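lol ok so funny story. i was supposed to be doing the assay writeup but got distracted and ended up predicting the structure for this chain instead. priorities right. anyway since i did it might as well share w the group, maybe its usefull for someone
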Amino acid sequence: MHFDRSRFDHRGLPWSDIADKGELHAVLCRQGSERINLMMHGATIFAAKIALAINRIRGRKKGVVLDFGCGVGRVVRFFGSKGWSVIGTEVTMEMLSAAHKFGLPQAALVALTDGVNIPVRDQSVDMIWVCGVLKYGLFKPGSACRIIGNPVDDEPSTEPFVPVYRDIAKEMYRVLKPGGFIVDVEMWVDAPPDVFIPDFEEAGFVTKQVRILRRYAGKLERKCQDWRNWRRLPPKLVTTAGQLCAAFRFWFDNPRSEVCDLNFRDYLFIWSKPQA
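and the output, tada:
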């Protein structure tokens, strides 16, 4: 089975240089077609809808959501359109500039951070949203699963890699209200899901769900991405197709099964902070 991995390769350009590539291309698949990016975006939106559904079940329809690693603000805009107050944090000023260019909701603000420390008070956030970010604090440069997002991983570095994944988990525990949730989408990962869990549970979180949203070599995804089958489908419906694929994976796929020759996939993790 042929799979063009090069389309997911951002190597050669730093984050600051890809911020202006477009709302989706800047943070998803830079060399991919619009259809591939819309499918990937659809999976993200499905996960964001799951996040909203969890809060509705708990009786919370609005609140404060922290978008940790907000990029150009594509999900900041989604949560803002649903009436949530959004705080976006990002490590690259160019990404934040692009977020302002694309537009931010009225009840939203974005801030430059160091990628670990969160500039909000203790227990002041109702929900934390993360998409395609935490793996960079866990996996070393050069890991295959870092290619889709970090363009300079193959270049020599004189700086030692310092894993900050555990520190991020502790910081999220600090800012999240008791009873709040973290909803984390980890994109383009070839490692088992269990590597993401221990540090969050050690910080005090309870793992509620571990799901699959997307398999990059999956027959379902490849069928939907094939422009010859869907050439007249408008962009909005392509995004909807991405949501439907994610829904199928969410409900029926086993996150711990290895069913593809190339096992890159998107995970959905949901952690909760116990009530005080």
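The chain is about 35% helix and 20% strand. The mean pLDDT is 84.
back to the writeup now i swear
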